[in-house]
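Before drawing any conclusions, I looked closely at one protein's amino acid sequence and its backbone structure tokens, quoted below without any editing.
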Amino acid sequence: TEALSSKLNQSTTSITQMLSSWNEELVDKTEWSEEEVDSWLESKNFNKLIIESVRPCNGKLLYSMFKMSQSAPESFYSSLITGKNSQITLRDLVYFSNELKGLFSII
């Protein structure tokens, strides 16, 4: 029983540390400056039209876009493909959406 209790305490501590680490990672991303978001956008090689429609954007706005993609996907996608951005392909939209999800998936 003592060994089981010790294992349980170790597991609980590990889970708590993991959640704390994830929370710190999320906070860091939501606090990104416009320059840090730009660097992330460029590093992912997104379609230039998507990058143009997202800029200027900081971490808080990027996180809001992610939440919008989850709660109102139709509005999210239609906002990206209006006007000249109608040339954005489905692949481009899915790629951007998946990368956003990966960036903020710890929530």
